[in-house]
Amino acid sequence: MKDDSRKSYQESLDRLKDIVKEVQNKDLELEESLDLLEEGVRLANQCIGRVDVPETLDNVEQNIETEEQDRKKDVKEEEDNETGLS
Fold this sequence. Notes:
This protein has 86 residues and is mainly α. Helices cover 81% and strands 0% of the residues.
């Protein structure tokens, strides 16, 4: 098994996605499934350890603000369309 300690966050996340696909395949032996589970847990813990919480919260806040602006824009466009059709 590879040494996972040097993988970047994105590489770890990509590998986690691959592991999920492999496990969902359901054609694995129990030993293989357990090995993948162990690797997945290790990678998940590494990803969690690399997340900068304040930066992540800032990104979430920005995404919420953007979505709110988009939603307001959509509502305004719908209102304008309804007004134009009346």
